[in-house]
Write a structure and sequence with these properties.
alpha/beta, 5-stranded mixed β-sheet, 16 helices
Length: 427
Amino acid sequence: MKNYHIETKCVQGGYTPGNGEPRQIPIIQSTTFKYSTSEDMGKLFNLEASGYFYSRLQNPTCDTVAAKICELEGGSAAMLLASGQAASFYSVFNIASCGDHVVSSSTIYGGTYNLFAVTMKRMGVEFTFVSPDCTEEELAAAFRPNTKAVFGETIANPALTVLDIEKFANAAHAHGVPLIIDNTFATPYNCRPIEWGADIVTHSTTKYMDGHASAVGGCIVDAGKFDWAKYAEKYPGLCTPDDSYHGVVYTERFGLAGAYITKATVQLMRDLGSSQSPQSAFLLNLGLESLHVRMQRHCENGQKVAEFLEAHPQVSWVNYPGLASSPYHALAQKYLPQGSCGVVSFGVKGGRAAAEKMMQHLEIAAIETHVADARSCCLHPASSTHRQMNDAELAAAGVSGDLIRLSCGLESAEDLIADLDNALSQI
């Protein structure tokens, strides 16, 4: 598309129908695609021609929606995956393997922490977790000669820390590695990490992008700016011949703009699966068309609820980047001037037991292992999403035992506040 505003890209990005073609993106619900000759098919397997031959790797519906997200983030190439977890895994494993090392912010989603600290450790990839508030010197000290990437979240789930993207980008680039940012909570409507130095952006599209709890999904967007060839010895998978594709060198064949996503698609997706279904991609696109409208309301509700909770006598603390009292308020003003998200983290007086009791009295916000859609929901992370962590790991992730994660939906802010007020009066 032309350089339209992001609102227009939400509605029309990624797909421009021709004369007599469907106005809505078509669902190509097919696993396979027909070709006239084996030679034509062979060109696809040799990566000498563009096209589709099996939906485990690529599908036209999925690619259309990925193109829209790519436009929204300002990237050069993108791919959809079956979940946000798959996106986090692929984003790192595409450039790191057994014997390599990655630096990550400690305040990341509990599932991602478990993926990195346990599962990928079993695969031989080691992670060093640093506080998002670390000094530049502390961050630099975390790097090793075999470090291949830096990972962080724009707004951490559920700690709601705001990452200083420029600080982490500068450190990553000083050590010749890319910065990967999970932008799920902010969405590209509120923050575009690539503009602040990020090289790769991931999303759990299950959250605000879908917006209606209808389809699980993930996405990876490549900025197309990191010079893999400059550090060829660090990234042989991108810069040396791939024997599984007749010796293709991704950086030579597809350039900086396409090498990373092409490799992730034709190699990792080929071997590991995790493909998005066309139906789910179609539902995701419906959510994206209203993303810019919904995010405004989510942020408005989040701000009003956070201000109410901060003044409530039964609440011991509130963490929301939009509050002037937040230690991340200045970073939020820098990176998220339009608003952060609709998620508020807070603790109630009486600790963990009081938190669990209070949640049982909520009528509008349902207790769910979910966040960031049209309906309000809440969660006690220490006993659910972060249950696998010990006390020290919980503290490093910014998750206390009394923490309640409240995701403000699109309902009336006044109704949400009245519901909270009633529930808090029961403890």
